[in-house]
């Protein structure tokens, strides 16, 4: 292979730039996103997801259940004639909408920056002439020429091939490039749009383009828009219950007032004001702030949030379904295990960088220390067509040119201390028998300076470990075969390496591959990322069940799942064929799925969701797109991930680090905890206000609070302090508990009793103060007004996630400001006229402030005596579904495709 051919591109599995044969760059992106780009602008284009206009984005924000609650509050406030309060609520709506739209636009721009590239071109033969044309203009019947580094523009049949290897990992999940040749099995005689030529060249007759191609068929599975998030569903249910309760309370207050002879107009205004008091109108602002802060923190950790609600959704996840190749693994091949007739060794290092070490018996060794390993890797490096390219600027990653499997052998040899260039100079290649799928081996002949000849051969164990090929005894062959089988069970692709020395030039090729001596075995695999195992362990500790869905071989899937702790090596692995044949049983009964198609990945995600689980799907390939779209939250890799995956996902990991998912889950749980914290605070205050209005008349206070006073208290307590609660830090033990069951109400886990208890206490303190003021001749209504507001602010201080610290100083400032404004409502003449209050003495003010401290105390006491009930911990082995499984609706099997 010429150096010019080598320079055209890089093997798949890296995020290196690729250049098509006509020279257009696909910088920074792997093949399928180029395929999506190349099919956008032509008669056979795959329709791209259009960018939503601003008005549609705004409408989508206003349709959010939280915003609808706020709109109801604004409507009721306008009905009271209090235009100033209505203006404040409408301002909150505007802020919520602007934040949501800006976040979506920023996320879209970030994803577009990751996807920035020019549309690639293809070389096609038309009218007997070779032409370079935009890939989107390729049509069925075109003859397309492919060479190393090219992106396949459309589906086609292979007419001719020379050492043609195609990386199909983005479509199939298979980490090893597939050999292509005319005829034979369809998987070997055809190519698919969006794949990359890893080695060789060929001629292809195009058979399908656009939506008829493999890429297009996957695109049709992605037509269903994501549904509401768990938080949106919970708050929608909460809103319905709250609306019914508010209507009943309004009717009750109105009836009681009329029975006592109060004016009809006053009681109507009081009832509406009480309804506004019961609505936690700051809830949308709290949720939006919490989500926005979570999105910002996640962006600092290289996670791009494309949909703001996705931040909270991760905190509710009970099952993480993850792709293997490029997600849990590095998306490259590595020679990790070496076996010779003398002993075994392990190769350590990162990526394709030659620096690393080879370890035997716990000690690093070199070629000089271990002649057997040196002989093994020397032959593997000579019988090799790949090359390694150092980073251009000295700061990037090494890249593989050619077959990634052969590149892995070069890396292993370099880490032992062998020099490829020196080997090529000392043992130049003079003959070769190329690899082909029938023989399953490759053989090269090398001449030494003294005229002797070295024959080097490598291939599949079943091809080389045969008496007609090797001169070694049957005992050694049996040992080697048994070891190769064991390595294969561990998920390795095993290569056998053999060689022979000849004192004179060889006769015809038929004699080259006989009488060889076995040098050893090499176990090659796509290694797991260093962060994958800790990520899986952290997810299981947090009660999240991990499952593996891949298009790779079942043995490989089982090995990776066992190595990372997803399952034990003994657990069952189901396959796409069993799913297709209907013999796989319940899809939620296993946790490892191999040889799956995009449609089957979609079915697996649907099965878990049908079992009542909240599912996150992580992936990077085109074949992951439909499942990413249909999951409760899709998480795509940003660097190696395809554009299809990124556009289908809710969250994009810009650094491809799975550990970021754990941080995102923690942020999601923080958001949900803060929403519940605010609801406890706000609904307890609303309950107190309702009890004061209902019980006050029976204690000799006909109208405890005027409508304007209720609105003022609500504005101050639910305003800045309420919003500040959304910025509370995460609890220290947030990741030591399972997620909330999906069917649990947002007020579940004991929150309702705490709301009623806290509301009753605040109401009792307020009424006692009011009765005392009335009996002593003080302005009792003003005292009720001041104590009710101040005590609620004390509850806000007691609601902190980390009391006694300076975490979230915004809450301290907000409570202080709100307390000052509450006092101003009693002392400033303009506010007194607006609210109908009377000034209190300094002693009365001191009493009111002291009573507010009781709110803080009772909040801390009840949090200790009646803490939230934590969900049940999932089984330690992760073998059972997460919290909520078994209590929800049964699995629904569905037809292929999206509903």
Please, could you describe this protein's structure?
This protein is 46% helix and 15% strand. The chain is α+β, with helices and mostly antiparallel strands. Helix 14 runs antiparallel to helix 15, helix 25 runs parallel beside helix 28 and helix 26 runs parallel beside helix 29. The longest helix is centred in the C-terminal third of the chain and has 37 residues.
Mean pLDDT: 79
Helix proportion: 40-55%
Which stretches are poorly predicted, pLDDT < 50 over at least 5 residues? 1-48, 113-119, 873-899
Number of strands: 26
User: Largest sheet, order of strands side by side?
Assistant: 13-12-11-10-20-19-18-17-16
Helices, by number, come to 32
Instruction: State the separation between the terminal residues, measured CA to CA.
Output: 49 Å
**Biggest β-sheet, characterized?**
9 strands, antiparallel
Q: What characteristic shape results from the CA principal axes? A: elongated
SS strand fraction: 15-25%
Give me the secondary-structure topology.
Elements: H1 3-6, H2 31-38, H3 54-62, H4 65-79, H5 83-115, E1 121-126, E2 129-134, E3 143-147, E4 155-167, H6 169-172, E5 178-179, H7 186-189, E6 190-191, E7 196-208, H8 214-220, H9 230-259, H10 264-278, H11 283-300, E8 303-305, H12 310-316, E9 319-322, H13 324-328, E10 334-339, E11 344-348, E12 357-360, E13 363-365, H14 371-382, E14 387-389, E15 399-401, H15 404-416, H16 420-426, E16 429-433, E17 441-447, E18 453-459, H17 461-464, H18 474-489, E19 493-502, E20 517-525, H19 532-541, E21 545-549, H20 554-564, E22 574-575, H21 576-581, E23 592-594, H22 598-610, E24 615-619, H23 625-630, E25 633-637, H24 643-648, E26 651-653, H25 659-695, H26 707-718, H27 720-725, H28 751-775, H29 780-798, H30 809-827, H31 829-835, H32 842-865
């Amino acid at each position: 292979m010429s150096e010019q051919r080598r320079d055209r591109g890089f093997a798949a599995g890296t995020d290196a730039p690729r250049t098509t044969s006509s020279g257009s760059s696909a910088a920074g992106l792997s093949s399928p996103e180029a395929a999506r780009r190349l099919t956008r602008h032509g008669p056979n284009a795959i329709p791209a997801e259009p960018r939503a206009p601003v008005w549609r984005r705004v409408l989508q924000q206003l349709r959010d259940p939280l915003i609808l609650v706020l709109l109801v509050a604004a409507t009721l406030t306008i009905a009271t004639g209090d235009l100033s309060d209505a203006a404040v609520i409408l301002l909150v709506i505007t802020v919520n909408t602007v934040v949501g739209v800006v976040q979506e636009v920023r996320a879209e721009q970030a994803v577009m920056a990751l996807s920035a590239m020019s549309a690639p071109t293809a070389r096609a033969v038309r009218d007997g002439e070779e032409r370079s044309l935009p890939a989107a203009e390729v049509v069925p019947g075109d003859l397309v020429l492919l060479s190393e580094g090219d992106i396949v523009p459309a589906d086609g049949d292979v007419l001719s091939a020379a050492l043609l290897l195609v990386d199909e990992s983005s479509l199939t999940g298979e980490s090893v490039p597939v050999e292509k040749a005319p005829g034979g099995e369809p998987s070997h005689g055809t190519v698919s749009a969006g794949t990359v030529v890893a080695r060789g060249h060929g001629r292809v007759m195009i058979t399908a383009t656009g939506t008829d191609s493999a890429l297009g068929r996957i695109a049709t599975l992605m037509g269903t828009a994501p549904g509401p998030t768990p938080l949106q569903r919970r708050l929608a249910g909460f809103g319905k219950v709250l609306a019914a309760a508010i209507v009943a309370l309004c009717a009750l207050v109105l009836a009681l007032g009329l029975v006592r002879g109060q004016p009809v107009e006053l009681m109507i205004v009081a009832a509406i004001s009480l309804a506004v008091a019961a609505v936690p109108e700051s809830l949308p602002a709290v949720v939006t702030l919490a989500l926005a802060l979570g999105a910002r923190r996640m962006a600092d950790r290289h996670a791009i949030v494309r949909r703001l609600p996705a931040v909270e959704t991760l905190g509710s996840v009970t099952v993480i379904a993850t792709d293997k190749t490029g997600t849990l693994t590095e998306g490259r091949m590595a020679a990790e295990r070496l076996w010779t007739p003398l002993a075994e060794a392990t190769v350590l290092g990162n990526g394709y960088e030659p620096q690393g070490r080879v370890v035997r018996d716990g000690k690093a060794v070199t070629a000089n220390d271990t002649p057997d390993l040196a002989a093994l890797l020397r032959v593997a490096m000579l019988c090799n067509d790949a090359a390694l390219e150092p980073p251009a600027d000295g700061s990037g990653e090494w890249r593989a040119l050619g077959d990634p499997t052969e590149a892995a052998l070069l890396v292993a040899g370099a880490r032992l201390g062998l020099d490829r260039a020196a080997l090529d100079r000392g043992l130049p290649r003079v003959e070769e028998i190329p690899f082909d799928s029938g023989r399953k081996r490759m053989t090269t002949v090398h001449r030494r300076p003294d005229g002797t000849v070295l024959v080097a051969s490598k291939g599949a164990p079943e091809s080389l470990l045969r008496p007609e090929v090797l001169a070694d005894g049957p005992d050694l062959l049996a040992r080697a075969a048994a070891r190769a089988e064991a390595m294969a069970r561990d998920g390795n692709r095993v290569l056998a390496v053999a060689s022979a020395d000849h004192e004179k030039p060889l006769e015809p090729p038929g004699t080259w591959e006989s009488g060889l001596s076995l040098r050893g075995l090499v176990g090659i695999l796509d290694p797991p990322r260093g962060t994958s195992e800790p990520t899986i362990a952290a997810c299981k500790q947090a009660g999240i069940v991990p499952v593996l869905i891949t298009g790779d071989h079942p043995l490989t899937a089982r090995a990776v799942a066992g190595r990372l702790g997803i399952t034990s090596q003994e657990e069952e692995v189901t396959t796409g064929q069993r799913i297709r044949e209907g013999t796989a049983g319940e899809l939620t009964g296993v946790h490892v799925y191999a040889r799956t198609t995009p449609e089957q990945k979609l079915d697996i995600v649907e099965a878990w969701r049908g079992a009542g689980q909240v599912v996150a799907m992580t992936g990077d390939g085109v074949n992951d797109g439909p499942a990413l779209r249909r999951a409760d939250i899709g998480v795509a890799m940003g660097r190696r991930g395809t554009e299809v995956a990124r556009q289908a996902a809710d969250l994009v990991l810009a650094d491809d680090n799975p550990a970021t998912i754990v941080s995102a889950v923690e942020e999601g749980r923080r958001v949900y905890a803060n929403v519940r914290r605010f609801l406890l605070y706000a609904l307890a205050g609303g309950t107190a206000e309702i009890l004061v209005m209902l019980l006050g008349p029976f204690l000799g206070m006909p109208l405890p609070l005027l409508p304007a006073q209720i609105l003022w208290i609500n504005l101050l307590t639910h305003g800045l302090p309420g919003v500040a609660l959304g910025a509370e830090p995460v609890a220290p033990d947030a990741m030591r508990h399972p997620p909330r069951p999906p069917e649990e109400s947002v007020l579940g886990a004991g929150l309702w009793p705490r709301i009623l208890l806290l509301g009753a206490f605040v109401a009792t303190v307020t009424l006692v103060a009011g009765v005392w003021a009335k009996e002593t001749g003080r302005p009792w209504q003003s005292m009720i007004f001041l104590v009710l507001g101040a005590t609620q602010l004390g509850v806000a201080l007691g609601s902190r996630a980390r009391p006694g610290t300076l975490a979230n100083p915004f809450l301290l400032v907000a409570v202080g400001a709100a307390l000052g404004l509450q006092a101003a409502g009693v002392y400033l003449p303009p506010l007194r006229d607006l609210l109908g209050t009377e000034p209190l003495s300094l002693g009365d003010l001191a009493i009111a402030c002291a009573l507010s401290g009781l709110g803080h105390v009772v909040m801390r006491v009840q949090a200790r005596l009646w803490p939230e009930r934590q969900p049940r911990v999932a089984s330690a082995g992760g073998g059972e579904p997460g919290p909520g499984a078994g209590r929800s609706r049964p699995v629904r099997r569905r037809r292929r495709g999206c509903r």
